[in-house]
Amino acid sequence: MKRNHLTLFFLFLTSFIYAQEPFVTVWQATAPSYQINIPIVNEAGNNYTVDFGDGTVLTNQTGPCSHVFESIGGEELHTVTISGTFGRIDFSTMPASAVKLYYIQQWGDVQWTSMEHAFFSCYQLIITATDTPDLSQVTSMEGMFHGASNLNSDPEFPLNLNNWDVSNVTNMKDLFREAPIGETSLDNWDVSNVTNMEAMFADVTNFNGNLNSWDVSSVTNMKQMFYNTQMFNQPLDNWDVSNVTDMSFMFNKNDVFNQPLNSWDVSSVTNMEQMFGGIESVSSHFNQPLDNWDVSSVVNMKGMFANAVVFNQSLDSWNVSSVTDMSYMFYRAYDYNQPLNSWDVSSVTNMRYMFNDAHVFNQPLNDWDVSSVTDMRYMFTDANNFDQPLNNWDVSSVITMERMFTGADVFNGEVANWDVSNVVNMGYMFGGAELFNQPVGDWDVSNVTDINSIFANTNNFNQPLNNWDVSNVIDMNSAFNGALSFNQDLSDWDFSGVQANFVYFVSGTNLSTVNYDALLLRFAEQEIENQLLISYYLSYCDSVVRNYLINDLGWNISEDEQSDDCETEANPINGYVFFDEDNNGCTNSDVPAANVLIKATNGNFNYITTIDTDGYYEMDTFVAGTYEIEVIANNYFTVSPETATVTFTGTGDTEELNFCITANELVEDLNITILPVTDARPGFEAEYQLVIENLGIQSIPIVTVSFEYNDAMQSFVSAVPAASSNSGNVLTFTLADFQPFESRTIDIIMQTFTPPTVNGDDVLNFTATVTPNQNDYTPEDNTFEFEQIVVNSYDPNDKRVVQGSEIYPEQTDEYLDYIIRFQNTGTASAINIRVKDVLSEEVDWNTFRPISSSHEYRLEITDGNQVEFIFENINLPFEGEDEAGSNGFIAYKIKPVAGLEVGDIIHGNEVNIYFDYNLPIITNSVTTEIVSLMGVNDYALTGSIVLYPNPANDVLHLKSENNVAPEMVAIYNLQGRELMSFNQNMENMNISGLSAGVYLITVKTSQGSAQYKLIKE
């Protein structure tokens, strides 16, 4: 009997289960996996069955399940039926499956426990079900249809949600976000328990349903509720919003909403940020009265009416005493012009952009207590009609006033008594405020760091500012640019902190010549360096100071011009320097002392230039003071006068000083140098220049020059002047009537062979020799050996040291040769080029000697190590117009300082190359290290090993003493390549196979090794 009762019970239970209405969905299983995942949330009591419609049925499921459909050649739709006990589905946990859910055909009898994120991102979903879900246990519908962008797209199955029972729901945040529910009615919904409606309809661009009957009395959060609902414009005046605390962004990006809201009780609201408009949103056309609103609890009104382009309602009655942020509040509220002077803004700390672009606003604000405000940047920018006094404002807490009145065309309100002592940024503060001309000279700007464009295009402004303490300002670019009336003395300003370029600092002002000169003098007095100053429509008289800024302090100054009314000029010193070769007194027919340096010193700085090929020199950058002038000549010359003293007490004086050079001993001294004008590249032509100098005291009738190259790697193309002979791999040139102080060049073009004969990193060897050298004062510089590394590409603006990255101790008393190459890679010809080099402390500037250049130039050396080569009116074509002609170079010699040892490094610093008024091109730097050929001497062999004669011709003798036995002698060129070695008959070594030149010798003995330098004649 008990068995029968049990059987009947199970039959009844089974019948009940199968009588339940299931949850029916339609899916598309897509390639390649054809798998779907059903994100049932695992909750206590779950026990459900899923029928996938293809014969697969899963029972006793408690959480997410999945299934792979068998593909039969297409991506078919599959009906999936779920029955049993479960209460929640959440597609936010399986976004990849969300796109595969196409239809809900039946809600069934499922008793849902939550709809939070139920169909999140199911953007294919359409609801065809005619029944309604059981939501009686649901409290959260947050994000239920968020991103279900296809939800109401099928006209055959219009979305019908109005009969849903949502009476127990408390959270509707993001419910329909980005789900275009269109004309769906929701007016029957009982939302009386809902507390959170944040972003409920956000981004539902086609919704315009009537919701005025809703009981929203429990709602506390309406943030973004109608955000970007581009069609919503329904009455909401029946709503009880008395519990709402957050209405920020509520109608943001809704440009059609314009319904009465004045009856709302907003007394609990604390946040109204961007409520009717948006800083970055479309224009809002809301224009309804709000004067009944109690906003006493509101803290944040940032951007509240931003972009509310037609809003113009009275708000003067508002109690805004709790508000701390009013930034952007009326930003682009183009029509707003209502009284606000009674507002208590004492709690506000941020007013940036508050009336920015409020084009018609012009109401008194002088009664405002702004003592707590720290940020007023852009506050009245482009408030074109605003012109009210603000002298009562306490701005002592403000930190930034950047662009505060920029473009406020008619503003000329009183601000003289403002305490701006805490302001850091005043950039563009009055820029474009055309009528502003209030006294601000007593402002304490000692903390300001930025006054970029502060009065730019402030056409009326002309007030004294000499009391301003601008010592902390780092950016003054364009401070007065275009201030047409400004003409004040700024020579008391402290510019020492400026880091950015001045550029248009006073350009386009009405600055007088006197005030402009005083400003330039102030820059010079404070030793402000390396600035760019463009001064349209300004004139100067003090060319000395201006030139000092340009030539000594590295300034680029342009667009100003020397006044026609100047009463004074610079104090130039000029004259001629000749060599009295015939010892009968210097005349204009004597030899010009070309390329010799002449120096002026006044204790504060020195100024050096060169004497040109006519013997003429000129220096014109002298302010009042006493100067010592001297010619820098070799010690076998005597200069008369030895020094000359010149004193300038004012400006406009010219001093002519002539010098005469005579010889104090008989000296023959020829010198030759090889300069690589271009790099050697496989398959391309390479340019070289031989520089021959007569540094002696006598004219030489015939000078012979030879140039030896490796004809296995290069072939000769051409030379200017032409070679007198071309034999094998040696070119010979004959130069006639070579005068003292004369320098000549020979330009040679070689063709470098193509790979595989010549490749990158191969080394080309060259030797140049000048004769006669029988009695030469320095025979070691009559031969020049040069190794050039073949490259595949190169930088056209560079610096090279010809001797390379290493020299030997024996070479530290010889010249290093530097060549600086430049190319105009721009798009227009360069009118002027300035090459600025800084000599390092490892070289002796007293030995500096320029030897060659591609174009005529003017040399200026200041402070001993600041070297500038100035190419005026060079008109260097740009690369695209004339590739070959777009290149140039400058070369100079200089010796290392005395006392350098093995391991010391000689630095060739970076070079700044200025093409007109552009920023400089900065080259590479180079280094030369002093190295030992075979290591340091093992012991003192001085007196124990003697090599003679030196210079030698064909035979070199070695004599040893003190029981020192020589074991081996090796001879190297200056690049360290071994050329000869001897381990026997070292007393008489045949060196006839060596070319004339300088060599290094290492002698290895029984007691150590030592090095020597040999001159081969």
From TrEMBL:
<feature type="signal peptide">
    <location>
        <begin position="1"/>
        <end position="19"/>
    </location>
</feature>
<protein>
    <submittedName>
        <fullName>BspA family leucine-rich repeat surface protein</fullName>
    </submittedName>
</protein>
<dbReference type="Pfam" id="PF18962">
    <property type="entry name" value="Por_Secre_tail"/>
</dbReference>
<dbReference type="InterPro" id="IPR013783">
    <property type="entry name" value="Ig-like_fold"/>
</dbReference>
<dbReference type="InterPro" id="IPR055353">
    <property type="entry name" value="DUF7619"/>
</dbReference>
<feature type="domain" description="Secretion system C-terminal sorting">
    <location>
        <begin position="947"/>
        <end position="1015"/>
    </location>
</feature>
<dbReference type="Pfam" id="PF24595">
    <property type="entry name" value="DUF7619"/>
</dbReference>
<dbReference type="InterPro" id="IPR026444">
    <property type="entry name" value="Secre_tail"/>
</dbReference>
<dbReference type="InterPro" id="IPR005046">
    <property type="entry name" value="DUF285"/>
</dbReference>
<dbReference type="InterPro" id="IPR011889">
    <property type="entry name" value="Liste_lipo_26"/>
</dbReference>
<keyword id="KW-0732">Signal</keyword>
<dbReference type="Pfam" id="PF03382">
    <property type="entry name" value="DUF285"/>
</dbReference>
<feature type="domain" description="DUF7619">
    <location>
        <begin position="795"/>
        <end position="929"/>
    </location>
</feature>
